[in-house]
Amino acid sequence: MEPPLSLPLDLRAIERILPHRYPFLLVDRITELEPDRRIVGIKNVTSDERYLTRVAGRPALPPLILMEAVAQVGAIMVLAKPENRDKLPFFMGIARARFRRPAYVGDVVVIEARVRRLGSRMGLFDGTAKVDGRIVAEGAMTFALGDRGA
Question: Which of 16, 38, 78, 90 is deepest in the core (most CB within 10 A)?
Fold first, then answer.
């Protein structure tokens, strides 16, 4: 039986929930979790990340990588439920994705996912990524739950 989760979730606790590993594990910490409602996670943008791009001459996180970080935070919320621990969320789509400004090296990205619809096999959540309280990216993400062995 899995031990109960206690916040904040650090990298080791996140690795027990998500199958992702370096360099594609994009969540550093989970600070808030309301099961079946919302979750807040942290992504620190560091200079040693392989996929950085340059925006106005400064290294920045590519928008699609930022949206993957949002998806991973949402996946943690779904997989944190004991009945979903043996499941794997499959990213099915994104709607209304908006990239407002870059997330640069040194930025702390605060990611929030809020459930819009959550069933036993599929779900939809709204995700927002902010730096210093300003939205850098947002979108609605659909996922399906499958067996880890599938």
Answer: 78
> How many domains does the chain contain in total?
1
Instruction: Note down the domain range covering 101.
Output: 11-147
Cβ count near 78 (within 10 Å)? 22
Q: What is the CATH number of the domain that holds 56?
A: 3.10.129.10
Q: Cβ(124)–Cβ(117) under 8 Å?
A: yes
pLDDT in tens, the chain (150 residues): 555 678 999 999 999 999 888 889 999 999 999 989 999 999 999 999 999 999 999 999 999 999 999 999 999 999 988 888 889 889 899 999 999 999 999 999 999 999 999 888 899 999 999 999 999 999 999 999 998 875
User: Is residue 19 assigned to a domain?
Assistant: yes
Three-state DSSP class for 115? strand
Residue 113 inside a domain? The answer is: yes
